[in-house]
Amino acid sequence: MRPIAEMSPRFKARIAGLMYLLIFVMAPSGASTATPLKMFLNLASDTGVALMFYYLFQPVSRRLSFLASSLRLVFVVVMSVNALNYFGAIEFLQPSHSSASFNTGYGISLIPFGLHCVLTGHLIVRSAFLPRILGVLMVLAGVGYLIFLWPSLGDRLFFLYIVIPCVLGEGYLTLWLLVIGVNNMRWKEQDEVGAIS
Fold first, then answer.
1. Among the listed residues 146, 124, 120, the one whose alpha carbon sits nearest the alpha carbon of residue 67
2. DSSP 194
3. pTM of the predicted model, to two decimals?
4. Which of 41, 55, 72, 160 is most buried (most C-beta within 10 Å)?
5. Looking at residue 98, what is its pLDDT?
6. CA nearest 169: which of 136, 137, 143, 132?
7. Do residues 85 and 109 lie in contact, with contact meaning Cβ atoms separated by under 8 Å?
8. Residue 68 backbone phi and psi in degrees, to 5
9. Tens digit of each residue's pLDDT (9 = 90 or more) over 4-14
10. Residue 100's pLDDT is what?
């Protein structure tokens, strides 16, 4: 397999789209649907999306691309610890499964993920190779996730202000990356101009 840096931008976009699709299929919607296999596949896919997005958005801004990808990886780490706690590999306070603690950990993990979505949306808006509307939708998705800074508010507003914007933002981005990818020529032009930092 060739190194990521040598892959075409469109191929990177399609891989990111495929991994994002796996996340949609595998992501647990709460403690009741979480299984170790689903969590592993979901977090592995999230790691892959972070890596692909880092390379994909470097021409826009190396620093912001690194920060956005790092925030997604923070989400992966928090969710990994949360899953290990929930499935009993490590025990913090209780020896048994605790749906409440899993859901609390999930809510906490959505904060760096929301910041990732806002930054990724910003990168898309500034890019020359993806439609700006995808960036706007990702920013809205990120703001939806950030509602979990206030967990009780996040629980109350979950469907209307979180699920709908997130499915629209992340869903349209996933479909666009899978079906269309990125405009290779514009990506290369922006890369040649140099990353705007």
1. 120
2. -
3. 0.85
4. 72
5. 61
6. 137
7. no
8. -60, -45
9. 778 899 999 99
10. 65
CB burial of 153-176 (b: ≥16 within 10 Å; e: otherwise) equals: ebeeeeeebbeebbeebbebbbeb
Q: Where are the alpha helices (DSSP H) in the chain?
A: 9-26, 36-57, 62-86, 99-126, 132-146, 151-156, 164-179, 184-193
Stretches in the chain below the pLDDT threshold 50: 90-95, 195, 197
- Per-residue CA distances from 183 to 58, 128, 174, 190 (Å): 15, 8, 15, 11
List of residues 6+ apart from 53 with CB closer than 8 A? 16, 65, 68, 69, 72, 120
Helix (H, G, I), strand (E, B) or coil at 96: coil
Give per-residue burial for 12-32: e unless 16+ CB within 10 Å, then b: bbbbbbbbbbbbeebbbeebe
6-182-20 Cα angle (round to 5): 85
The whole-number pLDDT of residue 92 equals 46
d(CA 27, CA 42): 6
